[in-house]
Design goal:
Shape: globular
Largest sheet: 3 strands, antiparallel
Helix content: 40-55%
Number of strands: 3
Strand order of the largest sheet: 1-3-2
Strand content: 5-15%
Number of helices: 7
Order of helices and strands: HHEHHEEHHH
Amino acid sequence: MAQIIKKLPDLPIERAIRTLSGRWKAVILYHLLDAPKRLSELTRLMPSASQKVLIQQLREMEAHGLVHREVFPQVPPRVDYSATELGLSLEPVMLALCEWGQRHARELDQIDELADCIVRPVHTKARPAPAAHAQRT
């Protein structure tokens, strides 16, 4: 796993927000909730995000224990990204944010402009965060 990029804040709400802060982190996690994805799949799902930014955000999420990166030894190399158990534990939060986003759009009379936002049940087993990371506080 990658090194922790910066020390996270001691206040739990600030820690949670800092861990998910970034233009694409929540969207990446949203897409990883149902199944592992390759970088090319994530790029197709988020055409507004550059590949460079996606890689940066994935590395930060890996460092914070939300995402697992698995490299398969083949030519060309294949890399899959999946949500860890810690990342999957954010599913109820993601669902609540989706519901709030729908409510917000309704309040502003923009519900017709809203894209589908469904947090799908996870059918694949995620990789647990390594024990070394789990001990950090």
